[in-house]
């Protein structure tokens, strides 16, 4: 009974962009990144594999040419990589982009954060 922050964010982004929102990804069972990474010591790749296996992709996704994945927070990108891989198995000719509301910049993951700063600036200056 938690608030679905990502869906709320996606709805707002869709409203602002004037595009349809389709909730096409579901987890077949709860998958806790904290439990798997910290508690069980999964590597990022092990987590991605486990997360990807738990994902189900609605067949409606195959009707889209451009897909914007929306996530609330991106730390290392493992959730976005797993969802991109899962979607790519269903639809091969779509352009998949990703956006998140918050980002935990980790120096070992992001080699050049100047592009991230520029992206935030561009989004922040939009009308």
What does this structure look like?
Helix 3 (44-54) crosses helix 4. The termini are far apart. The protein has helices spanning 5-17, 33-39, 44-54, 78-90, 114-124, and strands at 25-27, 55-57, 66-74, 95-103. With 127 residues, it is of the alpha+beta class. The strands form 2 sheets. The chain has a two-stranded antiparallel sheet. The protein has a two-stranded parallel sheet with strand order 3-4. Strand 3, helix 4 and strand 4 form a beta-alpha-beta unit.
Shape: globular
Structural class: alpha+beta
Could you tell me how far the N terminus lies from the C terminus, measured between alpha carbons in angstroms? 35 Å
User: What order do the helices and strands follow?
Assistant: HEHHEEHEH
Strand tally: 4
Largest sheet: 2 strands, antiparallel
> Whole-number average pLDDT?
80
Which helices and strands appear, and what pairs or packs with what?
Blueprint: H1 5-17, E1 25-27, H2 33-39, H3 44-54, E2 55-57, E3 66-74, H4 78-90, E4 95-103, H5 114-124
Parallel strand pairs: 3-4
Antiparallel strand pairs: 1-2
Helix pairs in contact: 3-4
